[in-house]
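So, can you check?
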Amino acid sequence: MQFSTKEDIEAPIDFVFSRVTDFTGFERSALRRGADVKRLDNLSKPGIGSGWEVSFSYRGKPRTVEAKVTAFDAPDGFTITALSGGIDGVCTVDLVALSRQRTRLTINVTLSAHTMAARLLLQTLKVARGSITKKFNQRVTDFAEQSEDRYRRSV
């Protein structure tokens, strides 16, 4: 199962890269949404090896995801690999400078199942694919708008 979206952001690539690698900010956001986040590394800045264990409830069941940065190419993007039960996930964030003040953000998320229970869970996600895609796209759009606002305020 795959989700993908693109957004053009009115900000330089270095600024956008600093925003998409603000892992501490994303940790706080997950905590506000009710997840428990445990940092698995002690790196002082984002990079390969940054990792998290995130616990949350989905469809009434407790879930735990272990995620790790497996590729990091500043300022062009990074890849996070996640494991949860029988589901593997790969999230790739790519940045392309369209001009000095404009950056294209592309996010691809791929999920694959390795157990029967995981396949059933992915099947339920496929049924709700339309609403999940809509929420995913909206969150990325909101992130892009917030990034543009922060850049305007910082200039």
Q: What stands out?
A: Helices lie at 13-20, 23-32, 116-127, 129-154. The domain at 2-154 is CATH 3.30.530.20 (Alpha-D-Glucose-1,6-Bisphosphate; Chain A, domain 4).
